[in-house]
Amino acid sequence: xxxxxxxxxxxxxxxxxxxxxxxxxxxxxxxxxxxxxxxxxxxxxxxxxxxxxxxxxxxxxxxxx
Length: 65
Fold this sequence. Notes:
This protein has helices spanning 6-9, 19-49, 54-64. The protein is an all-alpha fold.
């Protein structure tokens, strides 16, 4: 597995978005992560218990998006 040091990495320039855009993207990603966590928390226990089958779960997920 290739590795590098912070000393080497600081030589590279990176592009950063303007602050308002970075904030907007961060908020968008946070909302998506929360949505996925809610879906996981809702569906996983039902799938593991057998209460819900995968085909039924697919229908629920598609209808929520």
